Amino acid sequence: MMLRDLFVRMHADVKKQKPSAKRESQAKAQQEWLRHAAAAPSSELFCEINSSEEGLASDQVDTAREFYGANSVARAAKRPLPVRFLASFADPFTYILVFIAIVSVLTDWVFATGTERDLSTPLIIGAMVLVSGVLRFVQDEKSTVAAESLAEMVESTAEVERDGDGGNETPIDEIVVGDVIHLSSGDIVPADLRIFAARDLFVSQASLTGESEPIEKRASLDSTGLEGLDATTTAITDLPDLAFMGSTVISGNARGVVVATGTRTMFGEATGTLVGRKRETSFDTGIKSTSRLLMRLMFVMLPVVFVISGVTKGDWVDALLFSLSVAVGLTPEMLPMLVTTCLGKGAVDLSHSRVIVKRLDSIQDLGAVDVLCTDKTGTLTEDRIVLERHLDVNGREDARVLRYAFLNSYFSTGVKNLVDNAIIERALAEGTDEVDAVTKGTPVTAEELAEYYHGIDELPFDFERRRLSVVVGDARGRTRMVTKGALEEILGICSRVEVDGQVLPLTDELAEKVISRGADLADEGMRVLGVARKDNPAGTGILTVDDERDMVLIGYLAFLDPPKESSAAAIKALLEHGVETKVLTGDSARVAAHVCRAIGIPADNVLTGTDVEAMGDEELAVAVQETSIFAKLSPSQKARVVATLRGLGHAVAYMGDGVNDAAAMRESDCGISVDSAVDVAREAADIILLEKDLMVLERGIECGRRTYANMIKYVKMTVSSNFGNIASVLVAAALLPFLPMTAVQLLLLNLIYDLTCTAIPWDNVDEDAIRTPRRWDTASVRRFMVAFGPLSSIFDILTFAALFFFVCPAVAGGAWGTLDTAGQALFVGTFQAGWFVESMWTQTLVVHLIRTEKTPFIGSCASLPLVMLGSMGIAVATLLPASTLGAVLDFCSLPPVFWGVLAVMVLGYAVIVSGMKKFFLSRNDSLL
Asked: 3-state SS string over 565-600?
């Protein structure tokens, strides 16, 4: 059955079905498609999808994409621009303004007659809605565009062969059915593939099956050892000639042809039900918790204010509008926009420090970090490993050890790591020992040695065995297995040892000498690997771990990777910023301790993977607090250490670049990698460093803390101010014979204040505020609200008293009860204008008073944009009552005596808030 026919039939069948039945039918047809691809001979398969082993022709790519679909899995689709624009107006602030506008149209136009008809109020409301929505839309779009453009800088690619070009890096989303993909160690499989050529290919399908154990993939179902395998009954994920999107190549290499892309892959089908979901971080939890606190306050306040205002004033329509306006005033409706703006600005700032943010929320997570777990190689060291010595078991230089090491590294099929490169470079520069049976005593070069031997089979490196075995054959038909790996593991598979040209039994005494020499080298900071050989291994062709036994130890290799000059300064700088560095490495304990001592990381206590494995959860929880170096860890052990630290309440970042780091990165609060890392590590990361240096990370942490500091400023200022307004409004509703502000006036005040706060993401942050980790703390927000909120209520009530008993009677010509209708209107207009102006002055002032722990304007100054917008807001609010617009809003001009009252209130408020700030700091670690 042709794949094209299957595809057409699948779509024809599901068009008529309900969504649930459609998904089931699609999954069934998809599995039938993949089973067919697995069973079909590769030559027939290429014919069916109009491709070949050399890949598609360039002119076939667009046709294949149009027919089979793009290579993108289900995800929350980006809404069209008009929809995003309309969504900017979807918030409680807008809803209530529109409701008030409708009521105003009905009362001031529909049911009004003659000269009483007036549409000024709904027009003003419309302008407020437009300003609020457009501002939110512009800021959201700018932040989104910034984040997307930065994410594109770390786009994942795969090696795709087209037109027989041998393979070129191509963005994953441009891959189509029929493309030929080259896979090697560290790659993420970019689509569902039928493997047609493979060499020792081992992949992890944990993203699909949850099983972390690597499994071998082969070129066809007819491969040796697979006789009788039935593609129609075997589980899809167990078919050895299929590699699935999202799988990770552990070792080996292969070529495969794409048979399914995007949502039609096994991975795409599995993730289809998860569209839009993401991991909830401490930042998300904090935002939700604070929002719930405000919503509870709002739901309590709304009915109370409505009832009190209705009963005391007798106008239930005005009472409803006023209570709704109060509810909006209690809600920091600009919070989502300001959070997005802060994070977007933080991402752009980080990019200037060569740090790319993949997940916007991770900026705050980075600022919260108090423990950094990192691999050693390349991060703390120069990432420039040199083979210093190749020694026999007696500790003498021996070219035979280099020869065997060269054969192992050269013929291994995985991506050549730093160790392999160091061995190959040394062999190319120095040459190897004589191969006397072939060259009759003539020394040979490494190039000649590579031509004479050929690779036969391989047991790839894994983090449990901690070794790599390669079987090579020569022109005379002889085979030999060469194994290199951690010294202890190599000793464990050897029964004999080569000493001075003789093969002797490996006694306990000899083993102790070997371990002792290796330890001496490790104490000098060298990484030590053992090398062993075995002639004519019985398992050639179907090599298994069982073949790694009864081997002959021939010597060891000593590598040097010196610490970076900047590492010590970076570790010190991180510690000064409250971040403890812990090293999680697969290297030996002695080497890790040597490097860590050189750069200032405590090395008195070292735990190995064996120690971690033997510990229970409670014991490990105690140990991780006291230990800075974890050596010889497997990937699962790294992830367990990270999970334990997080369980103790630490915010943990993990920095790595290898296949063995991906699990720990996913377990951390913030995964960090570098642009040169393997695909699986970059995909697992939240943040990508374009420069592999801890000093860059230290700058990133500072930026994350600045971003958080500015976000929390707005939250605490607004929440405390709004909490204070609760008491003010309750007192006004209960005691005043009129509303202290109309609904439109209150909403306008709220809008002006929020507009002045849009400059907060650009505000300066004191150096002291970024010295310690910053995590979202709802309890701190609550304490701040309770401490500072009532202060504004006190001065609001004092303002009410001054206005009601002194200012307004002086303007209206008498006390409230003695005035006629016109006099009372003047009295109310003056009162409302006075509280409007006083509220704007004090709300703006408090921004500068509590944005810093230092003396405002002297010890710490706000940024120019924040000062300018705040000044403009005060100017608008101050001039508004005397303007034509003010008259439309029922404001009256304020008398000279009011400005004296305002000066006293503002000065008194500044003194009281400054005193409370000192009191608050004496009982809390920080103000913000």
From this structure: CCHHHHHHHHHHCCCEEEEECCCCHHHHHHHHHHHC
